Amino acid sequence: MKSIYLFFTAFLALASCAFAFDPSPLQDFCVAINDTKTGVFVNGKFCKNPKLATPNDFFFSVKEGNTSNPLGSKVTPVTVNDILGLNTLGISLARIDFASRGLNPPHTHPRATEILIVLEGTLYVGFVTSNPENRLITKVLNKGDVFVFPIGLIHFQLNVGYGNAVAIAGLSSQNPGVITIANAVFGSNPKISSEVLTKAFQVDNNIVDNLQKQFWVDNY
Prior knowledge:
Blueprint: H1 2-18, E1 32-33, E2 40-42, E3 45-47, E4 73-78, E5 92-98, E6 103-108, E7 114-120, E8 123-128, E9 136-141, E10 146-149, E11 154-159, E12 165-171, E13 179-180, H2 181-186, H3 194-201, H4 205-213
Antiparallel strand pairs: 1-3, 2-3, 4-5, 5-12, 6-11, 6-13, 7-10, 7-12, 8-9, 8-11
């Protein structure tokens, strides 16, 4: 009886893990299409007939990002919206370009763990654990260094080198999503009540009003 209970517990644990991320595909690939009349709906996208797939369904060219913005960074995501062949494969990536002192501000990916490798430059990176500890875990990365940001946790990257920097991030979802904290809290549409924010941040109402009037840059 005890062994059956342990097996059942293990099975439930594995089942919960299986549904925590993008489902595993049951075919070689499922190239997404927008034509709902000739496709089959799988994992958020309609799929074309596999016999009609072409090399371009699995191809995308990533260019150097324009960092001429107040943040000094540019994220170029490559998700299922850019490579239709990523549909059901549970993976995507992003190129992140940094000007000198450029910042990819605190943000979170609600559907993916991120693994980042520095191609050029030096980055100060980190993430914050969940309540109640809210522990900050940071590291300075140089060319060739790799760092992991667990799914759902707030994280950031700052260029602390003397020149530009470039990094590539792999993400464990075809559509990881991104929530930039400052943009979401102070730049939401419609605005979050100032009463909510003044109590949450324990600051004066004028500070909240000023922050909500800012133009919050999207570096995506």
